[in-house]
Amino acid sequence: EDKVVQSPLSLVVHEGDTVTLNCSYEVTNFRSLLWYKQEKKAPTFLFMLTSSGIEKKSGRLSSILDKKELFSILNITATQTGDSAVYLCAVETGTASKLTFGTGTRLQVTL
Amino acid sequence: SAVISQKPSRDICQRGTSLTIQCQVDSQVTMMFWYRQQPGQSLTLIATANQGSEATYESGFVIDKFPISRPNLTFSTLTVSNMSPEDSSIYLCSVPGQGYEQYFGPGTRLTVT
Q1: pLDDT digits over A47-106, tens only?
Q2: Cβ separation B96–A97 shorter than 8 A
Q3: B42: phi then psi, degrees, rounded to nearest 5
Q4: I want to staple B29 with a disulfide (CB 3.0 to 4.6 A). Which of A26, B83, B95, B107 is the partner?
């Protein structure tokens, strides 16, 4: 059975801090790893990673994948209160674009 | 990325009734996906809806409980049948983007009393 594990489950930081969110996986037929931000109902796409060691970056957010050790990290620098959300990691497997999600990390950024 | 809309946005239903959720995309897509997110849980794939063929259901989900229609390449419906309080969840449809990343609709929050 495919498995995606995220840590920590929740995190409270002060505005301006840097955070690192972790995602490890055990799946068959890996295709890609995706990060999403969920504030209310709909997850918003952040990154898709397919190759090891290549950092994806968007503003203060960045992510990298290690396919040998089967994990990914999502970094957020200079956090802002608007970064408060649940961050979801998902792994795409097989030929039918099936996504298996982790349980998410709930990030709260305080003033 | 595709623009996805869902109806209804939220609903409160009585147990034993059924609710049909609609998902509309602004472009033609081969595959559409339906997910469920129970309170405090992560997203779980219910089924993959392909136009012109039967939906493919994941383990633990059956067609009698979650019938799906896919009449064309821009539209799909998911029905939650004979509802119980355990069906209270957010239901989300998604479609693949050009790079095979998936984009999600705004979701339907269902409460069953």
Answers
A1: 999 988 889 999 999 999 999 999 999 999 999 999 999 999 999 988 677 899 999 999
A2: yes
A3: -90, -175
A4: B95
Which residues are CB-contacts of A91 (< 8 A; sequence separation ≥ 6)? A2, A4, A25, A27, A30, A32, A33, A34, A99, A100
Mean pLDDT of B29-35: 93
Give yes or no for a cis peptide into B67 (omega within 30° of 0): no
- CA separation for the pair B94, B87 (Å, rounded): 19
* A9 interface with B at CB cutoff 8 Å: no
In the prediction, which pLDDT does A107 show? Answer: 98
A15-47 pLDDT, tens digit per residue, is 999 999 999 999 988 999 999 999 988 999 999
Q: Does the distance separating the beta carbons of B1 and A97 come in below 8 Å? A: no
Which chain A residues contact residue B45 at CB under 8 A? 98-100
Q: Which among B102, B109, B111 is the top mutation candidate for probing chain A, defined by the most A β-carbons within 10 Å of its own β-carbon?
A: B102
